[in-house]
């Protein structure tokens, strides 16, 4: 499987943030954190001088920090993560439609502002470790020809990604082969593979796990958004760094849900040294029509729908069910080497 959004999808979807009435996460004094009220006239990155925290010796197997942040910024990020974790624990079901823009500096259009493919699809999640990822539309860039301008067109023979996780295995719908491929998860990934995927920010918000895995800072390009939180996460683990350079997480302040995630290619470098080629490869996901449900209430009415999708993937007529060998490598494919904010389709 090639799609990073659901890489470890059976277990990165854990803890999606609820969109029910905004709850208040108490601090040690029992008072709301009030992130939005700390300084409503100033953007986060404007609050912190960049002299940074003292350098510390890195443990073995941990990448060196790509930047330094101040103690004030670290405290601010801690509050965001704590609030996020508080909200995440309330989510039992989540579903959303997504749009995806893929930029490719090697095989795509030469401009960093023009994406190579545009896709639409859906994701679904149920605690603790069940999920669905399905692409419904893919359109590819078609360069201008004769009097016809550049545009985007589907490829009729192309097969869209569609897979499901039931917490025990990944089920991949291989349309050309007419096979429902079953990728068993190894014991150590059951119940947590989703949270160990490259996009835990969309699907889970465990403060300590995120901090142990990523260097975090307020995104330098946040601009003047007053109702959003923008964070950057740079990998600490070499295995993550081999997949992507960093990830941007754009959080809706009102619902405290990520409304977009940007995954930057491991070699992303839009302003290279003289003589080197720029790399602007990146992939952008924007999430629409987000629905979340707490346990009980409406959730109970959705159980049968989710069971059909997650617990019992249906074998299409004339297909074969094929169990794959290997420890769940269906999810270990490539995070698309493209992520960033499209200039036209993805408004801030």
Automatic annotation (TrEMBL):
Tell me the leader sequence span.
1-25
Would I find Signal among this entry's keywords? yes
Q: Give me the stretches of Low complexity compositional bias.
A: 37-59
What ranges does the record give for the region Disordered, renumbered to this chain?
29-61, 324-348
Tell me where on the tree of life, at the top rank, the source sits: Bacteria
Coiled coil ranges (UniProt) are none
- What are the UniProt keywords, alphabetically? Signal
Reply yes or no: does the keyword Signal apply.
Answer: yes
Report the protein name in the record. TIGR03009 domain-containing protein
Recorded source organism is Blastopirellula marina
